[in-house]
Design brief:
The structure holds 2 protein chains of 2 kinds. By secondary structure, chain A is α+β, with helices and mostly antiparallel strands. Chain A folds into 2 domains: 64 residues; 86 residues, Glutaredoxin (3-Layer(aba) Sandwich), CATH 3.40.30. Chain A has 7 helices and 5 strands; from the N terminus they run H-H-H-H-E-H-H-E-E-E-E-H. In chain A, strands 2-3-1-4-5 form a 5-stranded mixed beta sheet, with helices on one face. In chain A, helix 1 runs antiparallel to helix 2, helix 1 packs parallel to helix 3 and helix 3 crosses helix 4. The radius of gyration of chain A is 19 Å and the shape is globular. Chain A starts with 13 loop residues before the first helix and ends with a helix. Chain B is an alpha/beta fold. Chain B has 5 domains: 111 residues, Glutaredoxin (3-Layer(aba) Sandwich); 207 residues, NADH-ubiquinone oxidoreductase 51kDa subunit (Rossmann fold), CATH 3.40.50.11540; 91 residues, Ubiquitin-like (UB roll) (Roll), CATH 3.10.20.600; 90 residues, de novo design (two linked rop proteins), CATH 1.20.1440; 56 residues, Alpha-Beta Plaits. Chain B is built from 24 helices and 21 strands. In chain B, strands 14-13-17-15-16 form a 5-stranded mixed beta sheet. In chain B, a hairpin with a 4-residue loop joins strand 5 and strand 6. The radius of gyration of chain B is 27 Å and the shape is globular. The chains are: A alpha+beta, B alpha/beta. At the A-B interface, helix 2, helix 4, helix 5, helix 6 and strand 5 of A face helix 2, strand 13, strand 17, helix 17 and helix 24 of B.
Chain lengths: 170, 621
């Protein structure tokens, strides 16, 4: 191609260039698509079509295959996420110990439904199948931190600490 | 200990590491083990550990006391937990303040602080020694032999407990055929759920011709309510590495993959570090211990799909594809990863192997009953007092696990059911408490051993809703590859949803059963074939509850929201207005000091009022 297409590195913004560099580090490694997508998602935040296209081109894997993998696995998201990821465990132990009440309360407090991001972009709120903290049910995780034996009444306090940290940073 | 990494070239080198470690640790008067399992991490064990380190520096104990951060000790319900060796004193619910006192009074003063030890609620007395606590007393730790007992980060400590001696024995004495013969004699069966004899599997891997073979560790522990494998990976990663090394040596594979869930970041981190250390010591890489055998391990991280626990789906996922199962035959040992012969074992199975090789098949087979030898690790959770990780000999009574080890039901409520094997397993009742926990007895009841999740349920659990919960799970996780699973589980879920919302009919029960049996017979992979198990066992053992839902339109456990109403007892209500102020949908009205009323139409049955009422005036009808 003689003219510069959208995938031309020169026309790309720096984050997309970074995506390309990450994807390149997986080129030629057998069966590494999922690992490459993990790395790309952690750098870019999510995997929109334009990012999937870059991965497809760089690894020489057809776009429908890349897209098929992205949509198959629950860890990959095609939508942007909030600053913090809340995952409410609804594994059996948490379900039996009242995890649904935690979900109901969070929906009410955050004003958004499961699977969505709050209007202020602070939290994305998802259900986890089991985070393996069954001895501490019901449990939720926010980013990598696990909160044990969560009482729905304690949720406002937990969330407040994130808003406070946000203010402190600003 | 100092992090130096000598390359080990022989059994003698290994022995030298063991001797050096034992000599080094002998000089310490005490070893303090701080549990760093996920449970204790969430209970802020890091604060306890840093307070301990600070205090022991202040008090000048560096040459007398050794501090170890271990993997899961097991009793997650009472975390953070700390063990003081050599006495074996178990301290629970530790805080930074408490640990400072333990340093002063116990480590320096020599007096156990009884108040911080385990409280036996039955007798009202404290039990200071770990071995006397009912939770630990009946456990036999084989797979968990090092978990919670050693520093997970120290390869020297693993070696000091005969770690990597199993591999040395295999290459120096047993030979490749000797390893699988030993495993066959031990009776070890797959701990991931299916229970296939490990020795037979390795023998078929050995016999299969092929230039390139692979050994794969299935650490995609997806069953909700199960975290045994996570505990092993976090607490004793070298046992899994050595198990894979032995497997690779036996079948003739020089490459291994560990497929771990993305949900387990701590396990991935600790395993990665252990692999690095093993490489630095020459226990992974070229010509291991001078045997001429070379082997290395790569970690592959999953991306959140339950079906990837199924072995052929897992292989597709390692190859970077969608995790859809493959048709069998050909079986993975014939044509597995990248088309090459592949042996897949679960984490717990692999952790058992090294110690069987060191101590012999006869020793291992002395535990267990019938065709179920050795022990099984369970994750005890749900409405149970002492939730945590336990390892028990096969053949133990179900009731002993729940009531003796687990301490019975929380808050003294009546026992209702125990669910084993996650979404593929079944629910057993109080009539099954005498059942022997082994592969054959559990499957005769319609439940399965499964990977080891054991969820205990009290009378406030609705069994119809539980069946709906599991059906929702498998329906959501169905990969969509075959019709019985993709469409069948959806139809089952729709019927169950209708029943829990009060719109079920009597004929639905037969319809459920018939469809469930068809799915069992016709689905392509293990996920679909076992998906109806929770439904079928609850239909069989809790039929009266289903009937209450479809005939009387009531939920005996007061769980199904469409069949219950919240009411305020005017006799008990003092009109404090707390519930009215807390109600998120303003469904409660009433004047101060007058009995309040709940508007059933507005009420969402969220339970806020019940948990806040100080007078117990709110009831579910």
């Amino acid at each position: 191609m003689s003219e510069c297409s959208t995938s031309c590195p020169a026309a790309e913004d720096p984050t997309l260039q970074r995506v390309r560099r990450i994807a390149e580090s997986y080129r030629g490694k057998e069966g590494s698509l999922i690992q490459a997508l993990h790395a790309v998602q952690s750098a870019y935040g999510y995997l929109p079509l334009e990012v999937q296209k870059i991965v497809s081109e760089t690894l020489d894997i057809p776009l429908p295959t890349v897209s098929g993998v992205v949509t198959f696995y629950s860890f990959f998201s095609t939508e942007p996420h909030g600053k913090h990821n809340i995952r409410i465990c609804l594994g059996t132990a948490c379900y039996v110990r009242g995890g649904v009440r935690v979900v109901d309360r969070l929906e009410e407090i955050l004003g958004c439904k499961v699977g969505h991001t709050t209007a202020d972009g602070m939290f994305t709120f998802e259900i986890a199948r089991c985070i393996g903290a069954c001895g501490l049910a019901p449990a939720i995780s926010i980013d990598d931190k696990v909160y044990a034996n969560v009482n729905p009444d304690e949720i406002p306090q937990i969330l407040a600490s994130y808003y406070k940290a946000e203010e402190a940073n600003a | 200990m100092a992090k130096y990494a000598p390359r080990l070239n022989s059994l003698e080198d290994l022995q030298a590491i063991k001797d050096a470690f034992l000599a080094e640790t002998e000089k310490y008067r005490h070893t303090v083990i701080v549990c760093g399992g996920t449970g204790c991490v969430s209970a802020h064990c890091a604060d306890v550990l840093s307070a301990l380190k600070k205090q022991y520096s202040v008090r000048g104990l560096r040459d007398e006391v050794r501090i170890v951060e271990s993997g899961c000790i097991g009793l997650c319900a009472l975390g953070p937990t700390v063990v003081v060796e050599p006495e074996g004193v178990f301290y629970c619910n530790m805080t930074p303040e408490r640990i400072v006192q333990v340093v002063d009074k116990h480590l320096i003063g020599g007096n156990i602080i009884l108040d911080y030890t385990f409280l036996d609620e039955k007798t009202g007395e404290h039990i200071p020694y770990m071995k006397d606590i009912p939770f630990f007393h009946d456990q036999i730790k084989i797979a968990l032999r090092n978990c919670g007992a050693i520093d997970y980060d120290s390869i020297e400590e693993y070696i000091s407990r005969d770690g990597y001696f199993g591999f040395a024995k295999a290459v120096n004495e047993l030979g490749r055929t000797g390893v699988y013969e030993e495993l066959k004699a031990s009776g070890l069966r797959g701990r991931g759920g299916a229970g296939f004899p490990t020795g037979v599997k390795w023998e078929s891997g050995y016999n299969q011709p092929g230039e390139q073979k692979y050994i794969v560790c299935n650490a995609d522990e997806g069953d909700p309510g199960a975290y045994m494998d996570r505990s092993i990976l976090e607490g004793d990663p070298h046992s899994v590495i050595e198990g894979m090394l032995l497997g690779g040596y036996t079948i003739g594979a020089n490459k291994g993959y560990v497929y771990v869930r993305a949900e387990y970041p701590i396990a991935v981190e600790r395993l990665s570090e252990a692999i690095e250390t093993a490489r630095a010591f020459g226990l992974l890489g070229e010509n291991i211990l001078g045997s001429g055998f070379s082997f290395d391990i790569e970690i592959r991280i999953g991306a959140g799909a339950f079906v990837c626990g199924e072995e052929t789906a897992l292989l597709n996922s390692i190859e970077g594809k969608r995790g859809e199962p493959r048709q069998k035959p050909p079986f993975p040992f014939q044509k597995g990863l990248f088309g090459c012969p592949t042996i897949i074992n679960n984490v717990e199975t692999l952790a058992n192997v090294p110690v069987i090789i060191v101590r012999g098949a006869e020793w291992f087979a002395s535990y267990g009953v019938g065709r179920s030898k050795g022990t099984k690790v369970f994750a005890l959770a749900g409405d149970i007092k002492y939730s945590g990780i336990v390892e028990v000999p096969m053949g133990i009574r179900m009731g002993d696990i729940v009531f003796t080890i687990g301490g019975g039901i929380k808050d003294g409520k009546p026992f209702k059911a125990v669910q084993t094997g996650g979404p593929s397993g079944g629910c057993l009742t109080k009539d099954h408490l005498d059942v022997s926990v082994d592969y054959e007895s559990l499957s005769a009841m319609g439940a399965i051993m499964g990977s080891g999740g054991m969820i205990v349920m009290d009378e406030n659990t609705c069994m119809v809703d539980t069946a709906r919960y599991f059906m929702d799970f498998v329906q959501d996780e169905s990969c969509g590859h075959c019709v019985p699973c993709r469409v069948g589980t959806k139809r089952l879920l729709e019927i169950l949803q209708r029943i829990v919302s009060g719109r079920g009919e009597v004929s639905d029960l037969d319809r459920l059963e018939k469809m469930a049996l068809t799915i069992k017979d016709t689905a392509m992979c293990g996920l679909g074939q076992t998906a109806p198990n929770p439904l079928l066992t609850t239909l069989k053992y809790f039929r009266d509850e289903y009937e209450a839902h479809v005939i009387h339109k009531t939920c005996p456990a007061h769980v199904c929201k469409d069949m219950i109403t919240y009411v305020i007892d005017p006799e008990k209500c003092r009109g404090c207005t707390l519930c009215a102020r807390q109600c998120p949908v303003s469904a409660i009205t009433g004047s101060v000091k007058e009995p309040h009323v709940i508007d059933s139409e507005k009420c969402t049955r969220c339970g806020t009022c019940i948990s806040n009422c100080k007078f117990g005036a709110i009831m579910i009808k």
